[in-house]
Amino acid sequence: MKDKVLRLFPLHLKQAVEEKIARQWQALQEIRLRLNQPIELVFDTHVQWIETSIFSQKDSHFVLNQLSEFSLYRLQDELRAGYLTIEGGHRVGLAGAINTVNGQVKTIKHITFFNIRLAKEKIDLAYPLMSYIYERNYLNTLIIGAPQTGKTTLIRDLTRIIATGYRNVPAHKVSVIDERSEIAAAKNGIPQHDVGLRADILDACPKAEGMMMAIRSLSPDVIIVDEIGSAADVNALLEAAQAGVAIICTIHGNSLNRVKQRPALQQLFEQKIFERCIVLKSNQRSSVAAIYNAQDKDIYGRTNQWII
Fold first, then answer.
1. What confidence tens digit (pLDDT) does each residue in 108-143 have?
2. What values do phi and psi take at 218, rounded to 5?
3. Beta bridge partners of 252
């Protein structure tokens, strides 16, 4: 993990970051770079600054060249989305001057802010949740959490467990729609994270199209997808549910009630598609706040709390 991130920095910043972090890599969440500002390091429990290392325009050009392999043209889609994923599944958020056409974002120019979010593989993280989401078959499950509550880390381990087998439950066929290449961190189509024996990855594939492709061609038992939200996502999820495929997905939110208020998701809740809704706490990294069944009853065992 370390080398894939540190290669982005010029030598003087690489040395400063490596020295400051030392043995804290496992607790590191983000490295934030802002033009003419010191480097910010966000850990699980605190924030540190490298005040002796000011991120300069020259440094910004170096990082951009590393990200783009000296060709910003090849990153046009990523620039429009505001982020890109690098080897290892780490996501780099981008900000700066936005160029719009007819009110739509065309690209980001003069990129002067970078947020490097580290992808982490935590084996058996999801194990305590398995008894909640499996009852003779895997249940349609929605995982709700604010940014940085470990949603992607959680579904990565869920993928591995489901595709490898759980206690007396055999391995199931899992199709992962990995639009941002964060779940499996595939490189040239080959996952760099352990996603289990029976997982098939549609890497860098739009979620709605990917779900339909998986149903048509991969005969999955379970479809896993990160960060749903659009009307197209909802239609694809409804189609998957009607096809008898179990769905496990994540969404940004602080509570089940807040998520239910989103107009685009009304059909999912009206048809009671989700048999489990897992809500992650926002003020920790991170524990389960509640697990709701299809009747909106919290069934989470308070003595069985776990931490991401």
1. 778 889 999 988 888 899 999 999 999 999 999 999
2. -115, -5
3. 145
